[in-house]
């Protein structure tokens, strides 16, 4: 799950002041909600057909008196023919106070209530030659009685291969670039850099994967323009990911490749639990643990001080794919 609220800026990135901070800013929550729900359905139906196993549906609602209000729908596939685990969550929740992870970089929002709605997905294929992928698109409103809501959009998508293929990384980044191009030539390089900086395991000095795009605090051009950009990113997800898994799904593999996949999945777990602000936001705000943690892989392992043998495909992941580079 990717961070739904906090300023995601890191050293070298450019934070963006939410346009919603301007008095009298307008937004259309109903339009965002309808698009998000439709996006979840389209992705789940398409990938369920690809797998040959439909995604199960778990609709949930917060109980009266809980810390959060609202509900959502989790589409989940476990033990599929292709996906070992896949989760696509839609949530629309509200609370009386933003949690600490949301206000640490934005103290002026202390004491505000909030509404957060979004779609977040993580897909873990069984075949080690098929990459794990993450995508998130969201809108957040910070509310205060008598004042205009502060709104902003955030999200992005990133690819985490276990065995790297340059043409796959190039295709993924090309679709990301093309989705952003109508909204400014500067967006792809800016959001790619932000992604490279965000999805980085500082305690390992290592990237999570080959990146993609990441953005937050986005309200440039007003609601209509910013929402159009968000839709372009979300609607581009299947274009970015489906051709890759169609190409790689029949690649033969053995137990050694599965063991390396499980080892690298351990890094995915470390990032989500140690660094991901979405996980922190969800747990701090009293979110639904099953939905927050559905991004975890079904199996993972850790080895003490292990290093791949030089010249192997496993070593190439570290030398050729995890270091930050321009893919297009």
From TrEMBL:
Pathway: Porphyrin-containing compound metabolism; protoporphyrin-IX biosynthesis; protoporphyrinogen-IX from coproporphyrinogen-III (O2 route): step 1/1. It is found in: Cytoplasm. The record marks 203 as: Important for dimerization. It catalyses: coproporphyrinogen III + O2 + 2 H(+) = protoporphyrinogen IX + 2 CO2 + 2 H2O. Residues 1-25 are annotated as: Disordered. One of its GO terms (molecular function) is coproporphyrinogen oxidase activity. Residues 268-303 are annotated as: Important for dimerization. Its cofactor is a divalent metal cation. It comes from the Bacteria. Its EC number is 1.3.3.3. A divalent metal cation binds at residues 124, 134, 173, 203. InterPro entries: Coprogen_oxidase_aer (IPR001260), Coprogen_oxidase_aer_sf (IPR036406), Coprogen_oxidase_CS (IPR018375). Substrate binds at residues 120, 136-138, 286-288. Involved in the heme biosynthesis. Catalyzes the aerobic oxidative decarboxylation of propionate groups of rings A and B of coproporphyrinogen-III to yield the vinyl groups in protoporphyrinogen-IX. Homodimer. HAMAP family: Coprogen_oxidas. Belongs to the aerobic coproporphyrinogen-III oxidase family. This is Oxygen-dependent coproporphyrinogen-III oxidase. It comes from Paraburkholderia sacchari. The gene is hemF.
């Amino acid at each position: 799950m990717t961070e739904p609220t906090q300023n995601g800026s890191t050293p070298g990135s450019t934070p963006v002041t939410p346009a919603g901070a301007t008095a009298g800013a307008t937004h259309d929550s109903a339009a965002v909600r309808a698009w998000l729900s439709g996006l979840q359905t389209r992705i789940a139906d398409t990938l369920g057909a690809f797998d040959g196993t439909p995604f199960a549906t778990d609709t949930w609602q917060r109980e009266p008196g809980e810390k959060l209000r609202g509900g959502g729908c989790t589409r989940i596939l476990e033990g599929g023919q292709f996906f070992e685990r896949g989760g696509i969550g839609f949530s629309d929740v509200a609370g009386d106070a933003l949690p600490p992870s949301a206000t640490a970089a934005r103290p002026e929002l202390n004491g505000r209530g909030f509404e957060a709605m979004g779609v977040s997905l993580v897909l873990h294929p069984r075949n080690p030659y098929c990459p794990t992928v993450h995508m998130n698109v969201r809108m957040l409103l910070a509310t205060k009685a008598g004042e205009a809501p502060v709104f902003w959009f955030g999200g992005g998508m990133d690819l985490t291969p276990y065995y790297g293929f340059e043409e796959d990384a190039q295709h993924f980044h090309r679709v990301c670039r093309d989705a952003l191009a109508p909204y400014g030539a500067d967006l792809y390089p800016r959001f790619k850099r932000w992604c490279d900086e965000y999805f980085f395991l500082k305690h390992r000095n290592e990237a999570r994967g080959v990146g993609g795009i990441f953005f937050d605090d986005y309200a440039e051009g007003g609601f209509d323009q910013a929402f159009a950009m968000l839709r372009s990113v979300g609607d581009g997800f299947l274009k970015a990911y489906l051709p890759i898994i169609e190409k790689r799904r029949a690649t033969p593999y053995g137990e050694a490749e599965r063991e390396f996949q499980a080892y690298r999945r351990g890094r995915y777990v470390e990032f989500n639990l140690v660094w991901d602000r979405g996980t922190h936001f969800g747990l701090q705000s009293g979110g639904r643990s099953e939905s927050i943690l559905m991004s975890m892989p079904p199996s993972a392992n850790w080895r003490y001080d292990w290093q791949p043998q030089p010249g192997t495909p496993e070593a190439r992941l570290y030398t050729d794919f995890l270091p930050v580079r321009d893919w297009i």
